Amino acid sequence: MTIAVTGSTVPDSAVPDSAVPDSQVPGSPVVGSTLSGSPATAPHVCPGLEPGAAAWLSTLLRQERWLMRALSAVAVSRLPDAWIGAGVIRDVVWGRAHAGFQPAEVRDIDVPYFDPLNLGKERDLTAQETLSALADLPWEATNQAAVHTWYHDYFGGPPVAPLASVHDAVATWPETATCVAVRLMPDDSIEVCAPYGLSDLACGVWRVNPVRVTPATSMARLARQRVRDRWPRVRVMPPSGPGDADVQAVI
After folding, report:
1. At what angle do helices 65-76 and 51-62 cross, to 10 degrees?
2. pLDDT tens column, 82-133
3. What 3-state class would DSSP assign to 56?
4. Roughly what angle, to the nearest 10 degrees, separates helices 65-76 and 121-134?
5. Contacts of 217 (CB under 8 A, 6+ apart)
6. Quick check: pTM over 0.85?
7. Rounded to an integer, what distance in angstroms lies between the CA atom of residue 141 and that of residue 79?
């Protein structure tokens, strides 16, 4: 599956962008929707991510005003190194390739941020309160600097080492197509973090990322997300299965 953007067939390496002003987004306006007061954000370098692929994703996301509203809220929240990532990005891309993206089907908007100075559970609660005051959306903010303090108790398995950055956190997420995060920069550009590139997201491939997730867990997620019902053209790759070679050839 390749993704069609305004009539164009776009594989993993193309295309431009245009802004969607926050005032044009349906629903409650983002409070204080200006990036001028946001703390300076250093540019993110993502090895292996082709500029054309990042531009393609940026172009597609800008066409969803609901998501742009969320990105604007995160940008002015002053949460340290905050992004939007995982399932909601996949939902937008795969939704647009099928019957259309449906915001009502989004269970939560994952907001990974990085605050090594406060590893307490209350930090995430405060972060979500901040975001909720900016926009009434289903936020799920998680301090990636603190994941090692609760991951074992919550998910089981062996303890995990502390993460060094949001980039390192994104690289551990369950499927390669959801190992993607984006953020709105002060110059209105959209920055992309994709440790494994964007091929699986663009080509509609569900592939287990084995860093922390077992194949059984990923298959359970596949059923819970109703992938085959919502996006029937998505290809589900068996872990280390023979189909992997075919996907690489398509990409």
Report:
1. 110
2. 999 999 999 999 999 999 999 999 999 999 999 999 999 999 999 999 999 9
3. helix
4. 120
5. 174
6. no
7. 10
